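Marked as duplicate of an earlier ticket. Keeping the data here for the record.
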Amino acid sequence: MILVRYGEIAVKRGRRREFERKLMENILAALRRKGIEAKAELIRGRILVDAPDKAAEIIAKVPGVVSVSPAREMSYEEVPNYLREALKGLNPKSFKVETQRLDKTFLKTSVEINREIGAFIVREFGWKVDLENPELTIGIEIIKKKAYVFFEKIKGVGGLPVSTQGKVVALLSGGIDSPVAAFLMMKRGAEIIAVHFDQGKNARKVVEKTVNILNDYSPRDIELIIENHFEVLKPYVVALNRLNMREWTCVVCKIAMLRRAAEIAKEKGALGIVTGDSLGQVASQTLTNLYFETMSVRFPIHRPLLGMDKEEIIRIAREIGTYQAFLEYPYCDCPFRPERVVTQGKPEEFKRILDALEEMNKFML
Protein backbone atom coordinates (compact mmCIF):
# COMPACT_ATOMS: atom_id res chain seq x y z
CA MET A 1 0.00 0.00 0.00
CA ILE A 2 1.31 3.46 -0.95
CA LEU A 3 0.05 6.46 0.99
CA VAL A 4 0.01 9.54 -1.26
CA ARG A 5 -0.22 13.10 0.07
CA TYR A 6 -1.07 16.17 -1.94
CA GLY A 7 -1.22 19.79 -0.86
CA GLU A 8 -2.09 22.65 -3.18
CA ILE A 9 -4.94 20.95 -5.00
CA ALA A 10 -6.74 20.42 -1.68
CA VAL A 11 -7.44 24.18 -1.47
CA LYS A 12 -8.67 24.62 -5.06
CA ARG A 13 -12.29 25.45 -4.36
CA GLY A 14 -14.67 24.48 -7.11
CA ARG A 15 -12.09 22.32 -8.92
CA ARG A 16 -10.78 20.23 -6.05
CA ARG A 17 -12.59 17.01 -7.04
CA GLU A 18 -11.55 17.45 -10.67
CA PHE A 19 -7.90 17.90 -9.65
CA GLU A 20 -8.03 14.92 -7.27
CA ARG A 21 -9.48 12.66 -9.95
CA LYS A 22 -6.88 13.83 -12.45
CA LEU A 23 -4.08 13.18 -9.96
CA MET A 24 -5.34 9.64 -9.38
CA GLU A 25 -5.55 9.07 -13.14
CA ASN A 26 -2.02 10.39 -13.63
CA ILE A 27 -0.64 8.19 -10.85
CA LEU A 28 -2.20 5.05 -12.31
CA ALA A 29 -1.06 6.01 -15.83
CA ALA A 30 2.52 6.57 -14.62
CA LEU A 31 2.53 3.15 -12.98
CA ARG A 32 1.13 1.45 -16.08
CA ARG A 33 3.93 2.97 -18.16
CA LYS A 34 6.34 1.18 -15.83
CA GLY A 35 4.45 -2.10 -16.09
CA ILE A 36 2.66 -1.85 -12.73
CA GLU A 37 -1.10 -2.37 -12.56
CA ALA A 38 -2.62 -0.77 -9.47
CA LYS A 39 -5.84 0.49 -7.92
CA ALA A 40 -6.32 3.83 -6.20
CA GLU A 41 -8.83 5.20 -3.72
CA LEU A 42 -9.38 8.76 -2.53
CA ILE A 43 -9.96 8.97 1.23
CA ARG A 44 -9.95 12.12 3.38
CA GLY A 45 -7.28 14.13 1.62
CA ARG A 46 -5.12 11.11 0.81
CA ILE A 47 -4.83 8.77 -2.14
CA LEU A 48 -4.31 5.13 -1.23
CA VAL A 49 -2.64 3.16 -4.01
CA ASP A 50 -2.74 -0.62 -3.87
CA ALA A 51 0.70 -1.29 -5.35
CA PRO A 52 4.08 -2.76 -4.31
CA ASP A 53 6.52 -0.63 -2.34
CA LYS A 54 8.70 -0.02 -5.42
CA ALA A 55 5.86 2.07 -6.87
CA ALA A 56 6.54 4.82 -4.32
CA GLU A 57 9.52 6.28 -6.22
CA ILE A 58 7.48 6.38 -9.45
CA ILE A 59 4.52 8.08 -7.77
CA ALA A 60 6.79 10.66 -6.12
CA LYS A 61 7.65 12.03 -9.59
CA VAL A 62 4.02 12.68 -10.52
CA PRO A 63 3.30 16.45 -10.40
CA GLY A 64 0.72 17.21 -7.73
CA VAL A 65 2.17 14.70 -5.25
CA VAL A 66 3.73 16.27 -2.13
CA SER A 67 5.04 13.07 -0.53
CA VAL A 68 4.53 9.31 -0.55
CA SER A 69 5.07 6.52 1.96
CA PRO A 70 5.03 2.74 1.56
CA ALA A 71 2.62 1.87 4.38
CA ARG A 72 0.81 -1.01 6.03
CA GLU A 73 -2.92 -0.85 6.80
CA MET A 74 -4.23 -2.27 10.08
CA SER A 75 -6.48 -1.58 13.03
CA TYR A 76 -4.99 0.60 15.74
CA GLU A 77 -4.99 -2.36 18.12
CA GLU A 78 -2.71 -4.26 15.74
CA VAL A 79 -0.03 -1.55 15.64
CA PRO A 80 2.09 -2.77 18.62
CA ASN A 81 2.32 -6.34 17.33
CA TYR A 82 3.17 -5.11 13.83
CA LEU A 83 5.92 -2.83 15.15
CA ARG A 84 7.33 -5.61 17.33
CA GLU A 85 7.98 -7.67 14.19
CA ALA A 86 8.78 -4.87 11.74
CA LEU A 87 11.41 -3.25 13.99
CA LYS A 88 13.08 -6.48 15.04
CA GLY A 89 16.80 -6.38 14.30
CA LEU A 90 16.99 -2.58 14.11
CA ASN A 91 19.01 -0.58 16.62
CA PRO A 92 18.64 3.15 15.95
CA LYS A 93 20.31 5.65 18.27
CA SER A 94 16.98 7.42 18.70
CA PHE A 95 13.39 7.47 17.46
CA LYS A 96 10.13 9.33 17.56
CA VAL A 97 6.50 8.57 16.75
CA GLU A 98 4.71 11.05 14.50
CA THR A 99 0.94 10.70 14.18
CA GLN A 100 -1.57 12.52 12.02
CA ARG A 101 -5.21 11.89 12.81
CA LEU A 102 -7.15 12.68 9.65
CA ASP A 103 -10.19 10.89 11.10
CA LYS A 104 -11.26 13.28 13.86
CA THR A 105 -13.90 10.81 15.09
CA PHE A 106 -11.12 8.50 16.28
CA LEU A 107 -11.18 8.56 20.09
CA LYS A 108 -7.46 9.02 20.72
CA THR A 109 -5.70 12.27 19.81
CA SER A 110 -2.44 12.40 17.86
CA VAL A 111 -0.54 13.31 21.03
CA GLU A 112 -2.05 10.39 22.93
CA ILE A 113 -1.13 7.97 20.13
CA ASN A 114 2.44 9.31 20.04
CA ARG A 115 2.81 8.79 23.78
CA GLU A 116 1.18 5.37 23.80
CA ILE A 117 3.14 3.90 20.89
CA GLY A 118 6.33 5.66 21.99
CA ALA A 119 6.05 4.15 25.45
CA PHE A 120 5.54 0.72 23.89
CA ILE A 121 8.73 1.09 21.80
CA VAL A 122 10.75 2.15 24.85
CA ARG A 123 9.48 -0.84 26.85
CA GLU A 124 9.97 -3.28 23.99
CA PHE A 125 13.36 -2.14 22.64
CA GLY A 126 14.79 0.34 25.14
CA TRP A 127 15.43 2.96 22.46
CA LYS A 128 15.99 6.64 23.25
CA VAL A 129 13.31 9.17 22.30
CA ASP A 130 14.49 12.23 20.33
CA LEU A 131 11.74 14.52 19.07
CA GLU A 132 14.11 16.95 17.32
CA ASN A 133 16.56 14.82 15.35
CA PRO A 134 15.61 11.13 15.51
CA GLU A 135 17.43 8.48 13.52
CA LEU A 136 14.14 6.63 12.98
CA THR A 137 10.68 8.14 12.61
CA ILE A 138 7.66 5.88 12.97
CA GLY A 139 4.78 7.47 11.08
CA ILE A 140 1.13 6.73 11.76
CA GLU A 141 -1.87 8.19 9.98
CA ILE A 142 -5.41 7.48 11.16
CA ILE A 143 -7.87 7.37 8.25
CA LYS A 144 -11.43 6.00 8.49
CA LYS A 145 -10.78 4.06 11.71
CA LYS A 146 -7.69 2.44 10.20
CA ALA A 147 -4.03 2.98 11.07
CA TYR A 148 -1.47 3.35 8.29
CA VAL A 149 2.05 2.74 9.58
CA PHE A 150 5.19 3.75 7.67
CA PHE A 151 8.89 4.44 8.21
CA GLU A 152 9.70 6.54 5.17
CA LYS A 153 8.35 9.75 3.65
CA ILE A 154 9.59 10.32 0.10
CA LYS A 155 9.42 13.93 -1.09
CA GLY A 156 7.27 14.46 -4.17
CA VAL A 157 7.33 17.01 -6.97
CA GLY A 158 4.43 19.06 -5.61
CA GLY A 159 2.49 21.46 -7.82
CA LEU A 160 -0.58 20.55 -9.86
CA PRO A 161 -1.58 17.47 -11.89
CA VAL A 162 -0.37 17.50 -15.50
CA SER A 163 -3.04 18.54 -18.06
CA THR A 164 -5.19 20.48 -15.57
CA GLN A 165 -3.83 23.71 -17.08
CA GLY A 166 -3.89 22.88 -20.79
CA LYS A 167 -1.08 22.27 -23.29
CA VAL A 168 2.05 24.24 -24.19
CA VAL A 169 4.83 23.82 -26.74
CA ALA A 170 8.25 23.63 -25.05
CA LEU A 171 11.38 24.48 -27.05
CA LEU A 172 14.19 22.05 -26.17
CA SER A 173 17.62 23.10 -27.39
CA GLY A 174 19.89 20.40 -25.96
CA GLY A 175 21.20 22.75 -23.28
CA ILE A 176 20.69 22.83 -19.52
CA ASP A 177 17.97 25.46 -19.26
CA SER A 178 15.14 24.44 -21.58
CA PRO A 179 14.42 21.04 -19.94
CA VAL A 180 14.15 22.78 -16.56
CA ALA A 181 11.67 25.28 -18.02
CA ALA A 182 9.61 22.41 -19.47
CA PHE A 183 9.68 20.58 -16.13
CA LEU A 184 8.51 23.65 -14.20
CA MET A 185 5.55 24.08 -16.53
CA MET A 186 4.66 20.41 -16.09
CA LYS A 187 4.91 20.92 -12.34
CA ARG A 188 2.32 23.69 -12.64
CA GLY A 189 -0.11 21.38 -14.44
CA ALA A 190 0.71 22.00 -18.11
CA GLU A 191 0.98 19.18 -20.63
CA ILE A 192 4.00 19.77 -22.86
CA ILE A 193 4.72 19.09 -26.51
CA ALA A 194 8.48 19.21 -27.08
CA VAL A 195 9.92 20.87 -30.19
CA HIS A 196 13.59 20.68 -31.16
CA PHE A 197 15.26 22.52 -34.04
CA ASP A 198 17.81 19.98 -35.20
CA GLN A 199 21.27 20.99 -36.44
CA GLY A 200 22.33 17.40 -37.14
CA LYS A 201 24.74 17.25 -34.19
CA ASN A 202 24.76 15.99 -30.61
CA ALA A 203 21.97 18.30 -29.46
CA ARG A 204 19.33 15.96 -30.87
CA LYS A 205 20.73 13.03 -28.87
CA VAL A 206 20.61 15.16 -25.72
CA VAL A 207 17.02 16.20 -26.42
CA GLU A 208 15.85 12.64 -27.08
CA LYS A 209 17.41 11.47 -23.82
CA THR A 210 16.03 14.51 -22.00
CA VAL A 211 12.49 13.77 -23.19
CA ASN A 212 12.84 10.21 -21.89
CA ILE A 213 13.82 11.62 -18.50
CA LEU A 214 10.96 14.14 -18.50
CA ASN A 215 8.58 11.28 -19.32
CA ASP A 216 9.04 10.13 -15.71
CA TYR A 217 7.17 13.28 -14.65
CA SER A 218 4.42 12.88 -17.24
CA PRO A 219 1.44 10.50 -17.12
CA ARG A 220 1.93 9.77 -20.83
CA ASP A 221 4.81 9.90 -23.30
CA ILE A 222 5.74 13.44 -24.31
CA GLU A 223 5.39 14.11 -28.03
CA LEU A 224 8.70 15.22 -29.56
CA ILE A 225 8.62 17.15 -32.84
CA ILE A 226 11.90 17.56 -34.73
CA GLU A 227 12.24 20.57 -37.04
CA ASN A 228 15.12 21.18 -39.46
CA HIS A 229 16.92 24.19 -38.00
CA PHE A 230 18.68 25.03 -41.26
CA GLU A 231 15.47 25.04 -43.30
CA VAL A 232 13.66 27.21 -40.75
CA LEU A 233 16.47 29.73 -40.40
CA LYS A 234 17.92 29.88 -43.92
CA PRO A 235 15.55 32.55 -45.37
CA TYR A 236 16.17 34.77 -42.35
CA VAL A 237 19.94 34.51 -42.72
CA VAL A 238 19.65 35.39 -46.41
CA ALA A 239 17.67 38.51 -45.50
CA LEU A 240 20.23 39.57 -42.88
CA ASN A 241 23.09 39.10 -45.32
CA ARG A 242 21.34 41.30 -47.86
CA LEU A 243 20.93 44.00 -45.23
CA ASN A 244 24.51 43.52 -44.01
CA MET A 245 23.13 43.01 -40.49
CA ARG A 246 24.44 39.55 -39.57
CA GLU A 247 25.00 40.69 -35.98
CA TRP A 248 21.23 40.29 -35.53
CA THR A 249 21.39 36.57 -36.34
CA CYS A 250 20.84 35.31 -32.76
CA VAL A 251 17.76 37.47 -32.26
CA VAL A 252 16.25 36.65 -35.64
CA CYS A 253 17.05 32.95 -35.17
CA LYS A 254 15.06 33.00 -31.95
CA ILE A 255 12.17 34.75 -33.69
CA ALA A 256 12.20 32.16 -36.48
CA MET A 257 11.96 29.32 -33.96
CA LEU A 258 9.25 31.07 -31.97
CA ARG A 259 7.22 31.69 -35.11
CA ARG A 260 7.41 28.04 -36.12
CA ALA A 261 6.62 26.96 -32.55
CA ALA A 262 3.54 29.21 -32.61
CA GLU A 263 2.35 27.49 -35.80
CA ILE A 264 2.81 24.09 -34.17
CA ALA A 265 1.03 25.27 -31.01
CA LYS A 266 -2.00 26.39 -33.01
CA GLU A 267 -2.07 23.07 -34.87
CA LYS A 268 -1.92 21.14 -31.58
CA GLY A 269 -4.35 23.30 -29.62
CA ALA A 270 -1.62 24.49 -27.24
CA LEU A 271 -2.02 27.73 -25.31
CA GLY A 272 1.55 29.02 -25.31
CA ILE A 273 5.25 28.52 -25.96
CA VAL A 274 7.78 27.73 -23.22
CA THR A 275 11.44 28.74 -23.48
CA GLY A 276 14.47 28.39 -21.22
CA ASP A 277 15.32 32.10 -21.36
CA SER A 278 17.17 33.43 -18.32
CA LEU A 279 17.59 37.19 -18.29
CA GLY A 280 21.00 38.30 -19.55
CA GLN A 281 22.54 34.85 -20.08
CA VAL A 282 23.16 35.10 -23.83
CA ALA A 283 22.73 37.68 -26.59
CA SER A 284 19.13 36.74 -27.42
CA GLN A 285 18.15 36.95 -23.73
CA THR A 286 18.90 40.57 -22.88
CA LEU A 287 15.81 42.51 -21.87
CA THR A 288 15.95 44.55 -25.08
CA ASN A 289 16.20 41.53 -27.34
CA LEU A 290 13.54 39.61 -25.42
CA TYR A 291 11.29 42.60 -26.04
CA PHE A 292 11.91 42.42 -29.80
CA GLU A 293 11.33 38.65 -29.83
CA THR A 294 8.11 38.89 -27.85
CA MET A 295 6.67 41.73 -29.92
CA SER A 296 7.47 39.84 -33.13
CA VAL A 297 5.50 36.71 -32.21
CA ARG A 298 1.81 37.19 -31.63
CA PHE A 299 1.44 34.22 -29.32
CA PRO A 300 1.89 33.78 -25.54
CA ILE A 301 5.50 33.06 -24.53
CA HIS A 302 6.20 31.67 -21.05
CA ARG A 303 9.68 32.04 -19.53
CA PRO A 304 9.67 30.31 -16.11
CA LEU A 305 13.46 30.71 -15.66
CA LEU A 306 13.64 34.43 -16.40
CA GLY A 307 14.59 35.50 -12.87
CA MET A 308 16.84 32.53 -12.04
CA ASP A 309 20.63 32.47 -12.12
CA LYS A 310 22.63 29.61 -13.63
CA GLU A 311 23.32 27.91 -10.30
CA GLU A 312 19.61 27.73 -9.47
CA ILE A 313 18.86 26.24 -12.88
CA ILE A 314 21.66 23.67 -12.61
CA ARG A 315 20.45 22.64 -9.14
CA ILE A 316 16.98 21.83 -10.51
CA ALA A 317 18.49 20.08 -13.55
CA ARG A 318 20.49 17.84 -11.22
CA GLU A 319 17.44 17.10 -9.08
CA ILE A 320 15.25 16.05 -12.01
CA GLY A 321 18.02 14.15 -13.81
CA THR A 322 18.38 16.17 -17.02
CA TYR A 323 21.80 17.63 -16.19
CA GLN A 324 23.55 14.29 -16.71
CA ALA A 325 22.05 13.97 -20.21
CA PHE A 326 23.61 17.33 -21.10
CA LEU A 327 27.04 16.19 -19.88
CA GLU A 328 27.06 12.97 -21.90
CA TYR A 329 27.52 14.72 -25.25
CA PRO A 330 29.98 17.52 -26.06
CA TYR A 331 28.43 20.90 -26.72
CA CYS A 332 28.40 22.07 -30.36
CA ASP A 333 28.27 25.79 -31.06
CA CYS A 334 25.67 27.09 -33.50
CA PRO A 335 27.08 27.28 -37.06
CA PHE A 336 25.02 30.41 -37.76
CA ARG A 337 26.44 32.43 -34.86
CA PRO A 338 28.23 35.58 -36.16
CA GLU A 339 31.49 36.96 -34.77
CA ARG A 340 29.68 39.96 -33.31
CA VAL A 341 26.18 39.78 -31.84
CA VAL A 342 23.68 42.47 -30.93
CA THR A 343 22.86 42.63 -27.23
CA GLN A 344 21.08 46.00 -27.13
CA GLY A 345 19.45 46.36 -30.52
CA LYS A 346 17.95 49.61 -31.79
CA PRO A 347 14.23 49.67 -32.69
CA GLU A 348 14.85 51.34 -36.07
CA GLU A 349 17.31 48.60 -37.06
CA PHE A 350 14.90 45.93 -35.98
CA LYS A 351 12.13 47.50 -38.06
CA ARG A 352 14.36 47.32 -41.15
CA ILE A 353 14.77 43.60 -40.56
CA LEU A 354 11.05 43.03 -40.08
CA ASP A 355 10.24 44.95 -43.25
CA ALA A 356 12.71 42.82 -45.22
CA LEU A 357 11.29 39.62 -43.80
CA GLU A 358 7.76 40.72 -44.51
CA GLU A 359 8.66 41.30 -48.14
CA MET A 360 9.92 37.71 -48.31
CA ASN A 361 6.55 36.52 -47.02
CA LYS A 362 8.31 34.94 -44.06
CA PHE A 363 6.97 37.27 -41.43
CA MET A 364 3.51 38.54 -40.55
CA LEU A 365 2.84 41.48 -38.26
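See parent ticket for discussion. The radius of gyration is 26 Å.
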